[in-house]
Each structure stands twice: as structure tokens, then as C-alpha cells.
Amino acid sequence: MERESKLPQQVPSSASSSPPRAPDLLRHVQAAFKRSRPITGNMASNVSRARRLLVPEVESKKITVSAGLTGSNAFGEKPRTSEGGGPTSQNIAEPVREDSACIPVSISEATASIIDESYVTGDVGHRATSAIDAQLDFKAEGFHHRATCATDAQLDAKAGSVQPDLVDGAKKVESSLAATLSSVGPMGQSQGANDRTAIDITATMDNMSSHMHSIALIETEGAVGIRAFRNDKHDVKQRDFQSTQMSDTSSMRSGVIQMLEKKEDFLVHPATHSASGFPCAVTASVHSMSAPMPNSTYNSCSNMDVETAEEFNLKPRLAPQGGVVTPLCPKFQPTCVGSTRQSAVSTLVSGSAPGSSLGTQDHSLSKGQGSIVKETDQSKAAELHDKSSKEKLGITSGDLDNRQSQAQSVKVPPFSSSIDASQVNKTEKSSSAKGTSAPRKKNYDPELFFKVNGKLYQKLGKIGSGGSSEVHKVITSDCTIYALKKIKLKGRDYSTAYGFYQEIEYLNKLKGKNNIIQLVDYEVTDKRLLEEIRHDSVNTKDVRIREDVYIYMVLEYGEIDLAHMLSQKWKDTDCSNGQIDENWLRFYWQQMLLAVNTIHEERIVHSDLKPANFLLVRGSLKLIDFGIAKAIMSDTTNIQRDAQVGTLNYMSPEAFMWNEQDASGNTIKCGRPSDIWSLGCILYQMVYGRTPFADYKTFWAKFKVITDRNHEIKYDPVRNPWLIDLMKKCLAWDRSERWRIPQLLQHPFLVPPVSPQLPLSRNEHCKLLMEIAEIYRNNSQVSSLCSLLERSLTKLAED
Ligand SMILES: Nc1ncnc2c1ncn2[C@@H]1O[C@H](COP(=O)(O)OP(=O)(O)OP(=O)(O)O)[C@@H](O)[C@H]1O
């Protein structure tokens, strides 16, 4: 009842004969929506909810209605290690579809800001959401633009010149909105009214097919990110990636989300949702740009500097030195993949102090807040930034000029008032401390981003680390997830460095092969050294690299590796009958064979096959880690190694004895059969849950037993005897006796012989006899006996 008394005042029905003027109506709606009700029952929780941040407002007479959707990503994974470990969660993002919609609307004098907030219809008792709660902020100059507007929309607005077709569309939207808003009932009403409103708005947006912008709201439990897209007639291009947090709203949107999800025009690819595994939200908002934005609006991209922001298609953060600002909300900082579900997207999204609510209009700085960027500095920085990023972004000179002139005509708002001193970027601090304008070293925060060939990749967490590298999960501005392998070359000798570089060459060679992990991009940070590594590796073999040089490789992202899958499978198997599921085994064994066959056909020997080097990508196993792979020389089927390689439990006898002389005086080399041995060890592990030499713990014990040709590997009985035969074919000590992959692919374990129905028909008898005759074609006696039998059978059949 108490709650009842707090219900917003009923707004007189606007569906009456004379609808109120838009500002009046909006004021009513705001009055209703601003008084959001407490969440009832179990809806009320102390769980920190997403809060909303604002992005800069600039003076304009423009309203943007925007809607869209994208998925949030969350990565509740544990870092992987090369071998073993627990299961890894499976998250993969598909590129975001860019078919969202957003309509720029030009509106005069009166402006409105419709934003999403949430409330609960207590009587219905479920999550109610209003994507278009109205919140009116009447300013002397008109509307206050709140929110999340796309960079392009802002730029368009700044230019002060709205294209005629947009104006036209804008007017339509304006009137549609007025009509739509007039149908919004008071807060206490049932969900239906609000649903209807959202649908109406959606429909309105649908009507605006050209020059549409959209903002997609990425929502996790604690953070909300907004993506904005521009959908021009000819150039559908993903645009701004804004971030925000919302207070007590995230859980409320689901209703509208579901509603809007049905409106395909607003949706990004559903795969994005599944990638994240988290609910996505859509919001429709009306932005006006009539008043200067509160400083806090800059928080929306506060963890990115200008270049970062632009890389992520954000409104550039106009820090004079291009400095870096640490995330406002450390809770959302991506530290480790497994840290929180929020971490992934929430760092794309930035946090804001709870106080920086939507309604904040305070332009003054609060006490103790740090450095403020002066407008002039910002303008200069914007110019500089625009110039420097022109090339990178591939903006045409016409575009750039246009944008620059727009930028000049726009009064750039001051920095966020809600950034406190501790949150101001490190570069700014250090340069101001020195009192100099020190040249900036990096214009992005290396703790949060990797930069490969000028493209930024935001860290989502460390996936794993191998002997030579660390691998991170990263996300790009278009929400694609990759694995980024970082190899430190400092302290390594040139030949080792060359080995690392060779992995790139192999991956380039294997581009397009769908059972090999795909290399998307790479960079060696020191080009001169790269040339030395490539050309002088022999001369400088033992010279160690002293510079801080890294190899970055951007790779297709794998959800989980076979090592983790196996350990999980064995946990499940232990709980059931103790024997591995044969069909599961067949499926993955075949995939492994196909992957290794691909590289063998390209005359590459992997040399380090182990479960951790098979990754599951979209349901298929793909091979990774060509760090020690070697090409097979054209004049031989084997390879000469410079160093002993491999992982002990999977190493073939010849890998242990490389370069030694065998009994006949030949140098022992590793070739394709060495990989087959490793595959045999993996198969053995899949069947028995341990590798064949796992009982031998030390290096010398393993060395002794593996290099002993008389050692007999123990095969415990299994249901399918073909399985044991298969393992034996792979683990033959003599490498010349090991089967090759094409044979293994035809092994009866994978291709079980089909036993014919008995008794055989006359034709089948005849066929059988002909086969026998063919086998014994050199034996005239067998041949004639076969033909006699065949004739006899034919005669019998005739009788
Ligand atoms: N593309 C990828 N997608 C997802 N995870 C990956 C990817 N590449 C590597 N990893 C993870 O990182 C770990 C280490 O990667 P990788 O094996 O390439 O590094 P390395 O330094 O060569 O390791 P090793 O010591 O095993 O040779 C892998 O076991 C795997 O779990």
C-alpha cells in the first residue's frame, strides 16, 4: 500500500480529443517515469545494476531517435594452461550484424529526451520495462540531450546542416513520436501501454529506412554498453560504440528487449547474443542536442582516449595529450577472463559514479576533481587527432575536411565533471607534473588494449600461456572476439626468434584451411629486427635480442581446447560406465586426423601435437601452435631439427633420438610419422584417460622407455577391438610401420566393415568369387576353381 501511495500521479489521458502539445505531454510522461517504483518481491535485490552514463551533448536542434541491439559478451572463463585444467566456458562472438536502425530527427525549439528507465508494474508482478520512458529536462535553450548519441549523429548535428531528407524524415518521426507519446499511459498502468509505446516507436523507426543511426545497448548484469550504427543507403558501416551504465534499469528492459527483438530491423546478429551468453537490450531514445552536455557525459568513454575511442568508433575523448583515462569503475576493469561476467563488455563500456545519473545537469566541477581539459585544448587535440587518425581510419579527405569544419563549428564541451583526480589519465598527470608537454608515448592504455598494425584490441583476459607466449582473449570495435598471442623476443636468440616468426609463415600458408586456426593479422614490433631474423638468422644464430620486441598474432578464437574437453569428458565418463563414448571418440579422432592431414599435405610437420593444441572453433577441431613446426624439405620426407622439441608425453622415439645414428648408420630425423605417434598418444589418452608413458615420471624414465624398441605398451581391453588395433597402428615403434593419415581415415574403427546379410544372393556369391579370383589372379588353379564355382551357382539359380 505504501508503494501504491508512491505511485506516480496519473497523467490525464492524452488520447483525448485534443492531444496536448508535445512538451506538455512529455513533461507529464517524465513526471510519471521519473518516479520509478521500487522493485517488488524478489525483483528487489542488492545486486549492483547497470547504471547509465551520458555522452556529450552539443548544441544543436536535433533529436535522434535510436534503437538497436547488440549482445553483451561475458567471459566467465578460467585461464587455460597448455595442458589439462578444468573446463573452459565456451564463448564466441560472431560479427555483429549491422542492420540496426536509428533515426536522426531535426526538431525545433521544443525538444525531448526520451530515455529508457525502468519500473515495475507492481500489479502484474513481473519485470516491466519501458524503453521510452520520458524524461524531460527543459533547458533555457530547449531540450537537454541526454545520452548515448552516436558520434556520427553528433557530428551531423555539429555541422548544423541537416540533410534535407533527414529533416523530412525527422519531421515524420517527430509527429510519429508525438502520436506515440500521446498513447503512453500513466505509470501505474499495465505493461501493455508501455509495450505499445515501444512498438509504436519501433514502428516509427522502421519507417525511416534511410540514413538511419542506431544505438544498440549492450547489457550485462552490471554494465550497459551502447553501440551505434549508421545505416546509410550505400554504406552500411558500424559506427559508434558508446558505453554507459544504468541505475536499476538493466533488469527492467527485458520486456522491451523481447519486443524489439522481434523487430528485425533493429537487431544485430543473434549470434552475438549467444556469444555473450547474456541478455541483450535494446533501447529507443530520443536525443536532443540543444544544451551543452554535462561534463559527466564524457564518462561514457572514459576508459579510452581519443584514438582508442575512435578506434572503437566512439566520440573522441578530447584529451589534450591524448592521454589515457583509467576506467571509472574499477569493478568493470577486465583483469582476467574468469573474473566476472561483467568484465568483458563492461570495459568497452565505462562506468560512472552512481551520482552521474541521467538527470544530472550540473556543469560545475565537484570538489576535489581533477584536471579539466580546456575547450581550446580539446579543439586542438581534436584537430590533431583527426589528422593523425585520418590515414588509419581510411577517411577520405573530403570526409575529413567536412568533419574538421564541423568540429570547428562546434563548441566542445568541457571534460567530465565526474572524473575524480585518481581517475585522470596517467599521461596527463606525468606531463603536468613535469610541466612540459612531453611527447606522448602511447595514445592508448596498454593495460587495456593491444595495438596491432594500428588496430586496437581490447583485452578481455588471459586465456593461457605456453612456454613462449601468452595468449589473450581480445575484442575489436566491431565486437569480434579473437585470440591474441604475444611473444616476447627479448632475451631469445635469433634462431629461436626465427622459429617464432616461422609460425606466422606457416599460418599464412595455411590460410583458408578450415581445420587450421586462422591468422587474422600479425605484427613484429621491430621491423628492422624482423628483417635480420628473416635473412641473417644463420649468422646471428647465437646472438641474443636485447631490445623489447614482441610478435603479436591475432588469431581466430577457439572456445575450448581438447585437453579441457578431455578432462571434462573423463569426469563425465567416471560418473557413468567408465568407458569413453565411442561415437564421441570417432568424431574427434576423425577431426584430428583431418586437421593433421591438412598440414601433412602442405609438407609441414607439426611436431608438437597434444590435446592442448587442438581447439574447438564453432564445433570443429582446429590445429594451433606451429611454433616448432617444420617444413619437410623437398628432397626428403623427413626434417632435420635444430633443437629437441615437443611435449614429453607425446614425443615419438625419433624425436627423442633426433640426429642420432640408427642401427644402419642413418641419421634419425622426424617426419610425418612423428606426428602420427603423437596422435597415437592422444588417442590412447582419449581411450584410457592417461598417456601411454604417463607412469614414467621423470624425463630420463620416459626417455629410456620410449626409445626402447622392445618396450611393450600396455593396452587394457576395450569393448571395440578395432580401437586397440588403431592405437597400435599409430604407436608402432618403427616409424616405417606406422600408418599414414589416409590409411588411418579408412581404418575399420572409423569405417566399420558392413557385414552382409546371410545367406548371400547369387549375385553376391558371384561377386565374392570374382574378388577372390582377382586376388589370386596369378594363381591359375584358384582362378579356374572360382570360375567353376561361379558357373555352378548360376546353374543352381536357374534351376
Ligand atoms: N586461437 C586461440 N584461441 C583460443 N585459445 C588459444 C588460441 N591460441 C592459443 N590458445 C590458448 O593458449 C595456450 C597457449 O597457446 P600456444 O600453444 O599457441 O602457445 P605456446 O607458447 O606456443 O605454447 P606451448 O608451450 O604449448 O608451445 C593454448 O594451449 C590455448 O589454450
Automatic annotation (TrEMBL):
Compositional bias (Polar residues): 348-369, 403-425
A Pfam family this chain is assigned to: Pkinase
Biased composition (Low complexity): 8-19
Location of region: Disordered: 1-23, 70-92, 348-441
Domain Protein kinase: 457-750
GO biological process: meiotic spindle assembly checkpoint signaling; mitotic spindle assembly checkpoint signaling; nuclear chromosome segregation; protein localization to kinetochore
This protein's UniProt keywords: ATP-binding, Kinase, Nucleotide-binding, Serine/threonine-protein kinase, Transferase
UniProt xrefs under CDD domains: PKc_Mps1
Any one Gene Ontology molecular-function term assigned to this protein's record: ATP binding
Name the UniProt record assigns to this protein: Protein kinase domain-containing protein
Organism of derivation: Aristolochia fimbriata (White veined hardy Dutchman's pipe vine)
Residue ranges, compositional bias (Basic and acidic residues): 374-393
Binding site for ATP: K485
InterPro entries: Kinase-like_dom_sf, Mps1_cat, Prot_kinase_dom, Protein_kinase_ATP_BS, Ser/Thr_kinase_AS
Any GO CC annotation of this UniProt entry: kinetochore
